[in-house]
Amino acid sequence: MKAIEVTDLHKSYRTAAGRVPVFEGLTFTVEQGGSLALTGPSGSGKSTLLNILCGLDSADAGQLALLGEPAGLLGPDDWADLRRSRIGVVFQDSNLMPALTLEENVRLRADLAGQSFGPVRDWLERLGLQGLGQRYPDQVSGGQRQRAALAMVFAMAPDLILADEPTGSLDRHTASAVADELFRWQRHSGCTLVLATHDLSLAACCDQHLDLASGA
Amino acid sequence: MLLRAMLSHYRRHPLQLLALLAILTLATALWSGVWTLTSQARDSMAAGDRQLAGQQVLVRQDGKAVSVQDFADLRRNGLCVVPWLEVASDSGGARVIGLDPLAMSCAEAAPSGSGPVLDGKPFVDISEAARLAKDRPSVLRLYLATEIGHLPEGWQRQVDPAALDTGELADSFLLNLNALAVLVVLVSALLIRSVYTLGLDQRRHGLQLLERYGVQRRRLRRYLLLELSILAVLGAVPGYGLGLLLAEVLGSGFGSAMANLFDTALLATPHSVTGFLVTVAVMALVVFWCGLDLFKGGRGQTGMVRFQVPLALGALIAGAVTVLVAGSLVSAFLATALLLLGAGLVTPRLLQRLAAPHRDMAPLRLWRRRELGVLIRRLALPLVALQLAAGTVIAVHALVHTFEGTFNQWLDQRLSGDLFVEVPDGKAIVDVVPVLSQRELAANWHPVLRGQVILAGADTSSSLDLMATDSRSSLVQNWSLIEGVNSPWLAVGRGAVLVNEQLARRKGLTPGSRLILGFGEQTREVSVAGIYADYGRPAGEVMMDVEHLPQDFAPAFRSLTVTLPEGSANSRREELLASLQHAWQVDTLQVRDNETVHQLANRIFRQTFALTRAISYLTLGLAAVALLLTGWVVLGSRQWYYQLLVVWGLAGKSWFRVILTLAAELMVSIWAAAVPVGIALTWVLVQRINPLAFGWSLPMAIYPGFWLELMALLALAALMIAGAFWLRRPATGIAPALGNGEER
């Protein structure tokens, strides 16, 4: 079963200088449980594509089907439902609410997804955050924050994870640890992963690789 | 180049620059407007004092009102006296003063120059004033323009009653205004500082970057101070102009209030350099206060936070104790300032404590409460400013409404009767008793006589207003007294007197106190049977039964209060008046009906508080605008996190509900903090400051309906914030950059 089907997708931005195309005629598919790495220089449309895949942005033309649902039939509330319970999004940084502790952040995400938040502490422990659950995001390191962000996504048990440079702000060692956790859980849970990254070694860990600069 | 880099913040956030300028302009307008009005009032009262200081009037020893004939007799005796005929205007506002130019010539030649000073009042020839006096209430005074050893038989000197005892009250009135002006300055200074420091916080990162590039910190601070000073001047100059405009707009109502309270016209004093310099000085102080942050660099904050609660509690306790024992207006204001300071210091901490969530709350609710705590902390200054402004509005509203209610009730007592008929000169009341005894014409009636009486004291004697009526009349027996002996009206019927609150406070009188009253040559010791409320004027007054007036007492004014039979038609009123005219053999009668007098009195007394009300509402408006502006900036800096909720699947309506609830909780917090301040301030105003400032107190009353109105206004502000935020949300995609919203 295909988790994502993109056919002849077009997207451009209107600027003062005129219309600037981001991508034109983009076509690809990702199988359920598979993983896709999106690479390309800054401005090539990686984040834009991720936004389109979670309904926060829309394409100018083309077809998109997501988790078996044709995007053309989805209204804003349907997209919101999908993001709440089936699509997990991870950014490069600032995935956590600063006024909540790490544990409360994970509980909030699980609650919105309709999941029980009993195993929240387990998730934090499995991601190496034991004893840090009561700390606030500004009281832990960047790597620990990203692990907490993964814990939030894992706690909602999504069908699809969209990760926008999840290790971009981390040192090599921490980035590798975070990526390992992500891939381990993706394989374990059978969810689909789309990853935007500049790190080619990280991209190599995915089943598929799409370079948005060349369209290949 | 450096300047351009520093100012780039405003290029990126032009609205913030406009907001800062708007706050500077509005705040300057408000405080310069209030300052202008206060200084005009001060100048006008000083001019009034100069007119009246040390002046003596001649009064008849038999207590009768002086007449034009008396003036002629005294001049024939060679005395330099100046007649002063004061005639009320139609509208009850400004008065017309009639003077005799020939008599003035001897006053101007007098070496002491103690004749009345001619500034600040409209003067006409005495013949013109006499013509007006035929159908309007008037008072004739004879000023003694030269010092002489012996007075003619039957005459005595008296300090001008118009100047009696108003000095202290006038000072209190000015002090009230000054206190209001200080409150306005403090609230607006808080607002300016909050808007400025918020902008500075946003720029801190860029400034640190410049420092890293090698720009000296000292140089950066100098530039920032220069920038702040230029902004202050740019805001203050139009603000000062707006302030003058505001003073002009508020001036008419304020002038009427002064005329009614102190018989002093508000003089249109020319715009002085001092006014502008004061505005500049206040602005410089506020700039200095804002600039302190630049030099402090965040030091001292922790210490301040540590001592905030003990300091607040200390101020609250000291304020509460002082307000209870305050014996002067200055100490009452000092106590109020301490109470407000304490409230301002403790409120943000208290609200944060109240907003703290329970751990077992639903996660989204828990987030909202935590976010509320962040907003309360980051918006502490404008929040406290809005709290104090809203508290003041609650208190002023309660004061005005209590006053209106009490005053109306008081008017109903004082004006219980349908018609007030002036007794024509030379006619006797006894002549119309047969007419008034006819039940089909008058259901009830009583006479009212007014004049002057001398209150003999240990050191000095002073003149008092006297009112005499029939204490057995059912029209006066329902008066509610502030204090009284058992069966006070019975006591009045037996020769005791009632005194008004002003006299009781000034002379420390209580029921049972004894007074020595002088009626011409005759003195009489009387007992005080009770104290009655008498609003809106400073003069002391005693009230006694007509039966106990000396036979030779000559009242200055006599009238009849008549109640028409129930359900009687207009024709009965006309029939009664015709019968009175017939009995007195006069062609016309001066008659006023109850409703007209009510309307006139209400209009006059409403003006008394018009300025206080207007300024408190303007301050509230300014505080609300500042909170909206700063709230907008703070919420903007948290936008990323609010957008995260959308990413996490909160649909449009649910998201709007969350933001609206957050904004509403913030506003309700401010409202909840303002209500106790408002109640406390109401009590201080009606029970402590008002008696000290105006000589009369009011009952304590609260108006929850108005609190709800205020809450509805704040809810509307919350809706505006949430609505504006809804419009501001990114049309597509996720907010691309973080503000400085990392704070917990």
From TrEMBL, chain A:
Gene Ontology CC annotation, any one: plasma membrane
SMART domains: AAA
Coiled-coil residue windows: none
An example molecular function term from Gene Ontology annotations: transmembrane transporter activity
Keywords, ordered alphabetically: ATP-binding, Nucleotide-binding
Domain of life of the source: Bacteria
UniProt name for this protein: Putative ABC transport system ATP-binding protein
Gene source species: Marinobacter segnicrescens
Automatic annotation (TrEMBL), chain B:
Membrane topology listed for this record: Multi-pass membrane protein
InterPro entries named in the record: ABC3_permease_C, Membrane_comp_ABC_pdt
Name of the protein: Putative ABC transport system permease protein
Gene Ontology CC annotations of this record: plasma membrane
The keyword rRNA-binding is assigned to this record: no
Transmembrane segments: 173-196, 223-247, 273-295, 307-326, 332-351, 614-634, 668-686, 706-727
Residue intervals of the ABC3 transporter permease C-terminal domain: 179-289
Keywords: Cell membrane, Membrane, Transmembrane, Transmembrane helix
Pfam family, one: FtsX
Subcellular location, record wording: Cell membrane
Keyword rRNA processing belongs to the record: no
Superkingdom classification of source: Bacteria
